[in-house]
Write a structure and sequence with these properties.
mainly alpha, 11 helices
Length: 259
């Protein structure tokens, strides 16, 4: 297991994807800071050319709780795509680069290889979220957001981490798609399908029963008085994680790896 984790960490460290995902979350945190800056003084934003003369920006409060909520919502919505991209790359690269048979020929159990890939993926995604939180602290302090307190900061961190954990759990089926599809295409297709359906189902009012809509609802995309996921929604998230992990492990153990 240690050797498998070491190999996956080495692949991730030498990949350009870590820089791509890092830049994406940097842009997300900076955009959130820009929204807070505009909300602080809409007139100033118009004078600086950040907002059109006829444009209106509503639905948010320029303070630390609002900024932390916006970061969590960004991770919930964008995390499905970015975390999904990480999972698809980690599992699909073995087939796209024709290294799957070489990997399976090593004296390491296939279940250990799959577990190592999931562990490295989970840590990778969690570090991205923590990086976003840290960058958010710096941006919020730089623009002088009001409402700072340690309980508010701790609550924002807890909500962000919980949102991240649920999002990571929901991208595990994409690993099965990338594995069974023997490349990136099937995993990417599953990722976009889940993201699209999450938006549609939430719009129809049944998001609490669709697992891929649960993190966004938990993060507050529906507003303070909007729909929140209940026990059924959280249970479905756990179920998807179990099925995605077990299905991927079973496929790697039993599939006919002919190339």
């Amino acid at each position: 297991m240690n050797a498998a984790i070491w190999a996956e960490v080495l692949k991730a460290r030498r990949s350009r994807l870590q820089w791509t995902t890092g830049i994406a979350f940097t842009i997300a945190a900076c955009f959130g800071g820009l929204v807070m800056f505009i909300l602080q003084d809409v007139g100033r934003a118009r004078a600086l050319g950040l907002l059109g003369t006829k444009a209106a920006l509503t639905g948010g409060t320029a303070d630390w709780p609002g900024y932390f909520a916006l970061l969590s919502q960004t991770v919930a919505v964008g995390g499905t795509l970015l975390f999904g991209l990480v999972v698809v790359w980690v599992f699909g690269r073995e087939f796209s680069q024709d290294t799957a048979k070489d990997l399976l020929a090593l004296p390491t159990p296939r279940a250990a290889i799959v577990a190592a890939k999931f562990e490295v993926t989970a840590v990778w995604c969690l570090l991205l979220s923590l990086y976003t939180y840290g960058l958010g602290l710096a941006i919020g302090a730089a623009i002088g957001l009001p409402g700072w307190s340690l309980p508010v900061a701790a609550g924002g961190l807890v909500k962000l981490v919980l949102t991240t954990v649920m999002t990571i759990a929901l991208v595990t089926p994409f690993a099965l798609g990338a594995s069974a599809g023997r490349g990136y295409l099937a995993g990417v297709a599953a990722m976009f399908a889940a993201t699209f359906l999450a938006q549609v189902v939430a719009l129809l009012g049944y998001g609490r029963f669709f697992p891929w809509s649960v993190p966004a609802l938990f993060a507050g995309t529906a507003g303070s008085e909007g729909e929140l996921p209940g026990p059924v929604g959280y249970a479905l998230v756990v179920l998807v994680a179990v099925l995605g992990t077990a299905g991927t492990t079973m496929w790697w153990n039993r599939a006919d790896h002919d190339r």
